[in-house]
Write a structure and sequence with these properties.
With about 500 residues, the protein is of the alpha+beta class. It has 17 helices and 22 strands. The chain has a seven-stranded mixed β-sheet. A five-stranded parallel β-sheet has the order 12-2-1-16-22, covered by helices on one side. Helix 1 runs parallel beside helix 10 and helix 4 packs antiparallel against helix 5. It is globular, with a radius of gyration of 22 Å. The structure holds flavin-adenine dinucleotide.
Length: about 500
């Protein structure tokens, strides 16, 4: 029987472990933290619960690609999804879904109302947005389809792609300038890049329609089929918090014979010649294995667990070249008042600047905006009332933040929480007065949770044009790199879909 060791029980590690166990391997997962899930975890205190990582998950519906993975792994019926979307607010206007559903193109109409002189560009951009939405639907479906049906999907993708191929190598800055002249309208579509800590000039143009698909703005839009082949993707929150997504996958690993060990850091990956042989744990125990799948920070996994001197120079250079995002500063509140009176949607991104390029540059240079450039407010208890005591609410407020600030995060935690809450009180007055429980997570805390002591990148690989993550396949036979800093990139659904692909590849090679 093939023995597999998986390092890390985040979404990537757990999904790979479940597929390996399903394929009949003997699987052991080693996780340094006391709980499973990686950043896909929900923390609790005093009757309140908050998600600390992913908030919105895509394509997990029953007819969709992520849903197919959950079904294949036998846990689809254990994961509850609540249709979920995000709204955006800028100093001069808000783009919130209307209380009564008014069709799939209400946002287009709203943008034309806000920017009448940009109407022709808006119409042209929406044609591109529709094409990209269809392409994403076909691509997701194709990632879980084998055999001749996959060929048909690839053909359909080609048909959809050819008319927009001319934009393939354009940056987001170029693409936006092609459709619009108003910087405020451009900011609506590019604002999400501030969260990814990537500048519009270095981000792939076609990624803009992807991150702005209508399903993210209004979850009521039906996920109609594309050419009768694939449903358009949906977006959701996880009922009861995202631990209810990672938890059931971990449970299935156990039910299929695998073992997940928590509080078990791996200190070393053991190799012999060009083969992986197993791992050494922090307590010096050696676990032999035919396969080792490692997730986490690329530099930590390869330079600390193996050693730069034991890697081909070209591969080490590839790891050095992987661009990373910055981290986040997060405040979790247990509130005794109802925030819904002031924020009618579960998840709202508040942007206070239209200069996305400048804002990203600042954070890259290590200047923290202290919440002034923007933040998001997520009311966990609005989609799941079990996440707060009756009549109270659990609220997550966070913003992107550099890994290091002057004076260190440790000494400035309380000051930075207060500053972020002062900004958030412009939206929900009296937040601090009505707080029963407060927890803060600094970039240092995220480094510990994700086990990336050198640098925490909240979304993993930073999506810069021309740069890629570390390949799944490594110079050592039997050693595979998975997770958000690998070639798959970040995101929950990306992890579970690429886990399926990686395990399929491993089985083919063995
Ligand atoms: C604040 C935040 C918001 C996000 N929002 C979204 C969102 O809305 N939608 C979305 O799709 N995605 C979102 N993401 C991204 C998404 O959550 C991640 O890309 C994804 O969960 C990464 O999964 P992973 O398994 O690669 O990594 P992780 O979740 O980081 O898991 C890696 C695990 O490996 C363990 N580990 C590492 N090294 C070792 C070792 N040597 N020994 C033992 N264990 C080890 C770590 O402890 C960790 O548990 C967000 C992320 C964050 C942080």
């Amino acid at each position: 029987m093939t023995k597999a060791v998986v390092i890390g029980a985040g979404m990537a590690g757990l999904t790979c472990a479940a597929y390996l166990a399903k394929a009949g391997c003997s699987v052991e997962v080693y996780e340094q933290s006391e709980v499973v899930g990686g950043v896909t975890r929900t923390m609790s205190q005093g009757g309140f619960s908050w998600d600390i990582g992913p908030l919105v998950v895509e394509a997990l519906g029953p007819k969709e690609a992520g849903g197919a993975v959950l079904r294949e792994l036998g846990c689809a019926d254990r994961v509850g999804l609540v249709p979920g979307d995000r709204s955006v607010s800028f100093p001069d206007f808000q783009v919130f879904r209307p209380p009564i559903y008014s069709g799939p193109y209400w946002r287009k109409d709203r943008l034309k109302e806000l920017f009448p002189d940009q109407a022709p560009g808006i119409d042209r951009f929406y044609r591109l947005l529709d094409s990209v939405t269809d392409l994403v639907a076909l691509d997701r479906k194709s990632s879980v389809t084998d055999g001749p049906a996959s060929f048909v999907l690839k053909l359909a993708m080609l048909m959809k792609f050819l008319p927009i191929k001319k934009y393939e190598k354009w940056s987001a800055e170029l693409l936006m300038g092609h459709f619009f002249t108003d910087p405020k309208l451009i900011a609506i579509f590019t604002a999400i890049l501030a969260d990814l800590v990537v500048m519009p000039s270095e981000f792939i143009g076609l990624g803009i329609p992807y991150f702005n698909m209508e399903c993210f703005t209004d979850s009521r839009i039906p996920s109609e089929g594309v050419l009768g082949l694939a449903p358009r993707i949906s977006s959701s929150f996880v009922q009861g918090g995202v631990k209810n997504l990672s938890g059931p996958i971990a449970e299935r690993v156990g039910e299929m014979g695998g073992i997940v060990f928590t509080r078990s850091p791996v200190k070393k990956i053991i190799t012999e010649g060009d083969r992986v042989r197993g791992v050494e744990l922090a307590d010096k125990r050696i676990v032999q294995a035919d396969l080792v799948l490692v997730s986490g920070g690329a530099r930590e996994c390869f330079f600390s667990l193996i050693g730069r001197d034991r890697l081909p120079a070209e591969f080490a250079a590839k790891i050095d070249d992987v661009p990373l995002m910055e981290s986040v500063f997060m405040v979790q509140l247990g509130l005794t008042v109802d925030p819904i009176r002031h924020q009618e949607r579960t998840l709202v991104y508040y942007y206070n600047t239209y200069d996305i390029q400048g804002s990203v540059r600042e954070i890259r240079e290590g200047h923290y905006h202290e919440g002034k450039d923007g933040f998001l407010i997520f009311i966990n208890s609005m989609h799941s009332d079990t996440m707060a005591p009756k009549g109270m609410h659990s609220v997550t407020i966070y913003t992107v933040a550099p890994n290091k600030i002057e004076g260190g995060w440790g000494g400035r935690r309380a000051e930075m929480a207060d500053k972020l809450l002062i900004e958030a009180e412009r939206i929900i007055p009296g937040l601090r007065r009505h707080t029963k429980v407060m927890l803060t997570l600094t970039p240092d805390d995220f480094k510990r949770i994700a086990h990336t002591p050198q640098h925490h990148s909240f979304g993993g690989l930073c999506p810069i044009m021309g740069k890629t993550g570390v390949p799944h396949s490594t110079p050592y036979r039997g050693l595979w790199f998975i997770g958000s800093q690998s070639e798959s990139g970040g995101g929950v659904t990306t992890q579970i879909l690429s886990a399926r692909k990686v395990v399929k590849k491993i089985r083919k090679e063995r």
